[in-house]
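WARN no homologs supplied; continuing
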Amino acid sequence: MAVLSLVFGFLFCPLGIIFGHTAKKQLKQTRQRGEAVATAGLVVGYLELSLVLLAAFAVMGSAGGGLPLWKAYLLGIVEGVTEWLPVSSTGHLTIAEKLLGMRTDDTAVTGFTAVIQVGAIFAAVIYFLKDIVRIVRGFVLGLFKADQRGFDYRFGWYVILGSVPIAVVGLAAQGLVKGPLRSLWVVAFALILWSAVIVYAERRGRKTRGEDQVNWRDALVIGLAQCIALVPGVSRSGATISAGLLRDLDRVTATRLAFFLGIPALAAAGGYELKDALHGNTVGVPALFLGTLVSFVVGYVAIAWLIRLVARHSIVTFVWYRVALGIVLIAALATGALAAT
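OK structure emitted
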């Protein structure tokens, strides 16, 4: 089955994807070898499917005006891959938009960047649906029954408390975020400089506290870290996970808490920016819908992968990529190969 997934990944991508997922499930149950081949089949299948869809959207054009669908498709992939990884989705979208010839200082483009993040948010909601339902249920019960005020009730308040700083700072600094901070110089230096914080957090954090030991101070510190992530290139997940590690939370707990705090913050930002994304004919509804849908699908895969990765590996793994990208970006800007805005 694993070999078939790789073969059909090249010949007929839908079958390659189906065989790949089936093979990985069987191999996991039987504990046999061949998972690497099945994974390769999936990668080839999804890559070929992406190229086919990209070609189709390129032929379709911009569907009556607005952003061409192939650009929306590519940006949706960039958003989905990078939203939950500590590499800065806004930074990557800014770079990608610039490479695609888009005006990054256009309010409609800025709005598009914020709105397609909602797709990745829905992916997190689906992935953590059981946890979210449990927390909401415990929070609501705790509001009316004192004897029901357990961890889920407290955690609900932690999410609310941690969301307050980004709500206040985000509204107050929106002019700065949409203007000067959209410079690729900012993205480049933020990628490099915040990498030092990620390394320090990994080495300094004792990683001794689990989710049942989370308190309001943790939520507030991580909520404040989200404000720093308004700077493109810092990375919201990179900032919040680092803050959690510095609070001695273990990696999985810090990552999960970062996800839970990110859901209301990014959903609110997407809703607020929707009016700008739909203003004029720069983007258009078809491109906005496609970008959001693609970011949802890709984002779900990225979440599942990241959770498994942080359970066994340090997030310093991403630092090498961040620094390399920052250096390449600085070189491109310094030589004039790329304009900052």
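Residues 56 and 70 are 8 Å apart (CA to CA).
OK
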